[in-house]
Design brief:
alpha/beta; 8-stranded parallel β-barrel; 16 helices
Length: 684
């Protein structure tokens, strides 16, 4: 064990990160909570949210041959929406380690107890900048969940010396190699995050500052206070501090790269020092069907009309009492009414192609709707339901106990047995419930699910106990971090991460229009924000969208924003994005080709392949203008059509460049697919 100082060094001089393009990070160590890999994953999320195209590879395997802590890290990566940015290749050989070090910009190790180890020395020997955390004096290694802060209680570990079989195999020591120092995990009794037994949580709902729908209001008896954050010595939040230290270290390293000379003698910023590298692909090509599969809706009766199954476009709690209502909604590009009001006449939909999902039996309905935001007003529990709705009296029996599961089961039992069903949830599933509690709402009752998180307009969502729970480990978000269209995609990621089996049911986006809160000083969403929120959701896997059509404050109040003057500013944008969604329906229902694009800038991307055509969907994730280079695989050089913008760009040598004007910019590209370009390009 150790580093041979006489071994050959780098084949090429070190090239610093130029400040744009992918920032390639590498870490090496067995997958064990003591190594702090989860903190590095969160740091990548923070860097990405700040416009840095961070890519991380962690070399090594867990003590259970991939069936232990790896699973928790993979779940964290999925929950944070980093599947295309974080790689866990497992146990690897010496040649792979050297290759990863040679291709990286920085080595990072977030270990809680070993600021200097063999892995760090190997990185230094490879002439890489190194970022480590100061070890926690007196801390022993123990197992903990990937979502548990580093300072949370863990069982005692007993350090031992020992060698594992092969690099990164069970029992491997420091780095991903055998023969190092290993930690024997202690036995620990874990409990879910939160404050003990499941109980209802309350937060701001769709409108009027609380909940909405069916006379909604706060669930009586629930504790509205945010759950207490775990704190370490001196009142600090350990997980957040660890992430911030890691993130700050990486940022400082990035600042220093451009001004420090490498040990090879030449200026590290000199472009002649080594040849310009080609794209470094972060993941292999992988074909992925849309969630639920393209024929998902065919299995239900009643169900959505065939012409709208590719990508349903819904509106929430609208009414249809006059033929003129239908004409206006068709003009806005809607296809589906979700929870149509009880005074609506579904006969008016005959022959129009429009469908309705309702919370009652109706022979004209295309499916049913379960209780809305029940995770917030009834909580995660199986106690009795009184049959009352919020505002009508005690909801659960006994009073002040959670009964949300009971409510959903009862509502579902009252709908036709084979019908398509839909449920929307709120901040419980999004932020406050632990994964097991939230997953039960997502998986056990409805066929299609969504979660409403109004990142652009909610006056409370930036708080540490709401949006900060999802994005910043419980810390409050700045306005810049909070009011981003990319966060709508993060909500979709959260819900998709709870679906079991993964990818087995569609998740729809939920996007607000107008001013859905009663506080007049709360933000009002704009047309460009609506468009960016919708496309961020689609890029992250949403298979439909539902618009919240009510405005409860601001300059104008309305329950029909897509029909009335109150929605005049936002309505053209909504209609335009709906036309694009409908036109691209076959492509949106087609498979994803993951790993087919490498974006050299602050954007989220997804590639869809429909027959002989690729569609690249790209949405800004930063805050300002950016010029982005796209390296694409399985594509033929030629013309790239920018959809809806009456312009083209040239695809040459597998790449093209385009400009994103601001943090709300979205571009949709179409170009020829080349199935014979490389292995994996042909659809399976």
């Amino acid at each position: 064990m150790g580093v041979d100082p006489d071994a050959p060094g780098r084949a090429h001089p070190y090239r610093p990160w130029p400040g744009a393009g992918p920032l390639r990070l590498v870490s090496c160590g067995r997958l064990n909570p003591a190594k702090g890999h989860d903190d590095l994953v969160r740091a990548v999320r923070l860097l990405t949210d700040r416009g840095v195209d961070a890519r991380l590879v962690v070399l090594g395997e867990d003590e259970d041959g991939g069936d232990g802590y790896r699973r928790e890290l993979e779940a964290l990566v999925a929950r944070l929406g980093l599947a295309d940015r974080v790689r866990l290749p497992g146990a690897v050989g010496e040649d792979r380690v050297r290759a990863e070090l040679a291709g990286a910009h920085v080595f990072a190790l977030a270990s809680h107890a070993e600021p200097l180890g063999v892995a760090v020395m190997e990185a230094l020997a490879a002439e890489l900048p190194v970022v480590v955390l100061r070890g926690r004096r007196g801390r022993r290694a123990g197992r903990r969940r990937a979502d548990r802060p580093p300072g949370a209680a863990a069982g005692p570990g007993r350090a031992r010396r020992g060698g594992g079989a092969g690099r990164g195999g069970p029992g491997a020591g420091d780095g991903a190699r055998g023969g190092g120092s290993a930690a024997r995990p202690g036995r620990v009794r874990e409990r879910p995050r939160g404050r003990g037994a499941p109980r209802p949580r309350i937060g701001a709902g769709h409108g009027r500052g609380t909940d909405r729908g069916r006379g909604a209001g706060p669930w009586r008896g629930a504790d509205p206070r945010p759950p207490p954050a775990r704190r370490g010595p001196g009142g600090r939040r350990p997980a957040v501090n660890a992430v911030r230290r890691a993130c700050t270290g990486l940022a400082v390293a990035g600042v220093c790269f451009g001004s420090c000379a490498g040990p090879t003698g030449g200026p590290t910023g000199d472009p002649s020092a080594s040849p310009t590298p080609g794209p470094t692909w972060s993941s292999p090509l992988a074909w992925r069907e849309v969630d639920g599969g393209p024929a998902f809706y065919d299995a239900f009766d009643p169900t959505l009309p065939a012409e709208h199954r590719a990508f349903p476009i819904g509106v929430w709690l609208e009414s249809v009492t006059d033929p003129g209502d239908v004409r206006l909604d068709l003009a806005a590009g809607l296809t589906t009414y979700v929870d149509l009001t009880t005074d609506s006449d579904l006969a008016l939909l005959d022959g129009t192609g429009l469908a309705a999902l309702v919370g009652r039996e109706d022979p004209r309905a295309a499916g049913g709707v379960l209780a809305d935001e029940v995770d917030m007003w009834a909580g995660a529990g199986e106690n009795g339901w009184t049959g009352l709705w919020p505002g009508q009296g005690e909801v659960c029996d006994p009073a002040n106990t959670p009964c949300g599961y009971t409510v959903q089961a009862a509502v579902r039992a009252g709908l036709p047995a084979g019908a398509l069903t839909y449920a929307n949830y709120g901040k419980g599933v999004a932020f406050r419930l632990d994964d097991a509690e939230a997953a039960r709402f997502v998986n056990d009752y409805a066929d299609v699910v969504s979660v409403d998180t109004y990142w652009f307009t909610d006056p409370h969502i930036c708080g540490g106990h709401e949006g900060g729970m999802l994005l910043a480990g419980g810390q409050p978000l700045t306005e810049q971090e909070c009011r981003r269209p990319a966060n709508y995609g993060r909500t979709v990621d959260r819900v998709r991460s709870l679906v079991d089996p993964p990818g087995s049911r569609p998740v729809w986006a939920f996007v607000e229009l107008g001013h859905p809160f009663s506080e007049d000083d709360a933000p009002t969403i704009t047309g460009p924000q609506v468009r960016a929120a919708v496309w961020s959701s689609v890029i992250h896997g949403a298979r439909g969208v539902v618009y919240f059509n009510h405005s409860f404050g601001g300059a104008c109040e309305s329950f029909h924003l897509l029909r009335e003057a109150c929605g005049a500013d936002v309505r053209p944008w909504v209609a335009d994005v709906n036309r694009q969604l409908t036109a691209l329906g076959p492509a949106l229902a087609a498979p994803f080709l993951d790993g087919a694009v490498l974006a050299d800038g602050p954007v989220d991307t997804a590639v869809k392949v429909d027959g002989g055509t690729q569609y690249l969907l790209a949405a800004a994730t930063g805050d300002g203008a950016a010029t982005v280079r796209f390296d694409v695989r399985c594509a033929a050089d030629g013309t790239v059509t920018v959809l809806g913008e009456d312009r083209d760009v040239a695809l040459a040598d597998g790449a093209f460049t385009d400009t994103f004007a601001d943090g709300l910019a979205v571009h949709l590209y179409r170009y020829d697919h080349a199935p014979d370009a490389a292995p994996g390009c042909a659809a399976p």
